[in-house]
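Batch manifest, entry 17 of 40.
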Amino acid sequence: MEWYIPITILPGVGFFILSTSNILIALNDEIRILNTEKSKYKKIISQKLKQLIKLNYALIIQYCSGLLFVLGGVLGEITKNNNLIIYTVFIGVIFLSISIGLLIQYSINSLKIRQEHLKL
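Output type: structure tokens
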């Protein structure tokens, strides 16, 4: 594997990070608005805070994935070790997959929370 291939994946990871950050900011704003009527929305706020934590973990894992892709490319070129590139890229892909799994869980739970919220 060529050293620059892992680095070419970075724009895709960047889009994931941007998207997740935007979702996180919107959720934070929602929680802030619901917090004005804390007694009425206590359960919803609690569920949304759990969602916020899940999004933060997804974001952290995405950052780690991006770091692994960069390290794989740079260290692979410096050391001329193909196995190093393959292993770091593979671990980066696993991290990105975990992050996507968290985002899928977030989306499913978000739908349930939204339905519960709209019933109030």
